[in-house]
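Hey team,

Filing this mostly as a record. A colleague (T.K.) asked me to run one chain through the structure pipeline before their review meeting, and I want the input and output archived in the tracker in case anyone asks later how it was produced. No errors, nothing strange. Just documentation.

Input sequence:
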Amino acid sequence: MYSIIDIETTGLSPRNEKITEIAILVHDGEKVVDEFTTLLNPEIEIPYRITQLTGINNKMVNDAPKFYEVAKHIVEMTQDTIFVGHNVHFDYNFVRKEFRELGYDFKRKKICTAKLSRKLLPGRRSYSLSKLCKELGIENPHRHRAFGDAAATVKLFEILLKVEKNLQELTLKGLNTSLDRKIIDNLPGEPGVYYFYNDSGEIIYIGKSKNIKERVMSHLSNNGTKRAVEMRNQIADIGYEFTGNELIALLLESNEIKRHTPLYNKAQRRTGFQYGLYYYKDENGYLRLKIDKNNRDELPLTSFTSQLSAKSHLFTLVEAFNLCQKLCGLFDTKGACFHYNIKQCNGACIGEEAPEIYNSRVKQAIEPYRFEQQNFMVVDKGRSDGEKSVICVEKGKYLGHGFINFELNSNLAIDDLKQCIKPFPDHRDVQQILRSYLKRNKVERIINL
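Output structure:
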């Protein structure tokens, strides 16, 4: 049994905010068998911005029950069920916090339909509830209201249950006759990169996953789009390469797609980031920022989908760090820039501000786009016990990655680690992958060189 639950709140943090509405639809795996919805008096003011989003205002909840008045019913209704929600941690943490304030430890197993959708419906542009509903034809006339969103989540959940059932009962019917069932059965549930081949032995798709078997199975049962079915029917063979962890999988996938340019990886092959933010030192010693088209010879600090978005971002940096419009290529003049005339520029454009003073602010502005250290190695889980993966970055450039057998706490020399590195090309995509991953995820060790 499942309890599909959605709530509306006075804000985003369970620590300081309260629930204003809750909807619970109990599902037996085939249909909804019970439901409950009510507004709740949060006992605090509802901010105007929240009212604009949900339509729930303070007057509407004045006579509504307080959470403690419906708490017993929620406990009884959800007993022995799994708590289901879209981005479930948000709803679950709010509900748990409300019960905790009543001295009750509310615990349920959880399923997140957003996470499950990424697993079972790969390749979607967005996994927000509204975008998934639009793509899957699920109507939700009452968005940002608890019952409307809960009902939409029920429809999504039912689709996901069917997809998962199809995965479990997957047969070769409808697939390419050359695809051997043993290949599917022997796929590993490990992190890595996988390859789809057609009857001619050509690579038609490359992907990565924390669990190769799960992701491949989702492709083989994907009837979501005409293109997905077309690709699925061409898969005659499947290959894979273990990576041991997600970061190596991301880096290898990016390189392999660029190297093989598979037919069904068009989105990854053509980068939408055509413009980049670059910097250089001019003949007068000033660090200058510029927006330019991306090229293979020089890596940008960061990239943008359009020249307009790039310039807009650069204007923001100019304002935030009191930079010179002229030296950033945003004001074409032989004399002082416009900001100097309104006393918002300190005169670097006409030599009044010393380069070292101006440059210190430029360095502050570009710091978030650079690695904290320019020379380092990332050591993380390998493909087997006793093996570690190693990534090397020198002078801010990605040199490549490799694998080595050693204990994490051993005193292996840096030269030994470097010898295991297999060279891979550096480009803006891998730079983006490394920066983003290292900021958001923990690795076993980072060694500064």
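Quick notes for T.K.: The CA atoms of residues 96 and 104 lie 9 Å apart. The mean pLDDT is 89.
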